[in-house]
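Sample entry (121 residues):
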Amino acid sequence: MEPQLIRLGYQIITISPDQPSKLIQAIQEHKWSYLLLSDSKMTGARAFGIAFKVGAKTLEQNENFRIRLEQPSGEKHHLLPVPAVFIVAKDSIIKFEYVNPNYKVRLSPELLLAGSKYAPE
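Predicted structure, serialized as tokens:
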């Protein structure tokens, strides 16, 4: 999908709640070619309206599985972003968005291509 979007004129940028040092490791490990930015303080996620606070019960359950939310982000805010995709035109206007609070449901390639009709101008 990435090559097709690039041919259409898109620049792919991903934003992660992980701190920069964790992202550098991931980029090197996975050999990602797109721009990967850190939003460990969740400033961007809040601005996009996709930040949510992880509840105490979930934090406790995660701790039982040795999942510590603070480690990847380096922060204690206990916020995560809802998975989302935005197509932003060169004039900085969001032309298409897909937000689904169920992290198990991701945007289908077909829907992404349908949204790509808002190709960069």
